Amino acid sequence: MATASPLRLGVYVFDDAEELDVVGPWEILTAWAALSALHPEVLTFSADGAGVRLAKGLRVVPDRSADDVGPLHVLVYPGGRGTRTLSKDPEHLAWVRTMRHQVPLMTSVCTGALVYAAAGLLAGRPATTHWGAFDELAALDPSILADTEARFVDDGDVVTSAGVSAGIDMALHLVARLESPQAARDVRRAVQYDPAPPV
After folding, report:
1. Model-level pTM?
2. Whole-angstrom Cα distance, residue 61 to residue 64?
């Protein structure tokens, strides 16, 4: 008897993406993959498969290119300075719209929402982004229902999160949604994520 293919989650990486936007969700999702009986596959990919330099200098060598990443159940799109260039790139925005039709669950971290907005994915929908980027979000699409308080906004087939560290919370939410709240609690404990800021 054929078994269902495992969940596949892809984290898109690009030059000047914010480090924690990439690595925060990656840490949560790969910890989940190690613990879960669902055995989800988590991978990184860039436009051409080449390495990228993130916003503060961290270099990442992705697993795949956009052309050979294969079918995904979830796309994680980080934010960072690089989103300003990508949100003005017609070819990239066309690719995002294509992914929207192919990937059941599109997610963004921080200013990744700006690219989704520029591609038309957030029109008339609730969404969030980094606290400093709401004016940019509104300029791209004034129909977006901006949530300035939420750590993440789940609107069914699109999930957006607030800035940087909020991507960790969003990724834990994805684990809860795709498997169970207990699975998310197990992941949170495994990575010892228990925010208690010292300042």
Report:
1. 0.96
2. 9
Per DSSP, helices labelled H in 119-165 are 134-140
User: What are the tokens at 76?
Assistant: 């994680």
Q: Which of 110, 115, 119, 140 is catalytic?
A: 110
Active site residue 110: yes
Multiple choice CATH, 8-187, 3.40.718.10, 3.40.50.880, 3.40.1400.10, 3.30.70.1140? 3.40.50.880
Binned at pLDDT 50, 70 and 90, residue 4 comes out as low
Q: What are the pLDDT digits (tens) for 49-81?
A: 999 999 999 999 999 999 999 999 999 999 999
Tally the residues of the chain: 199
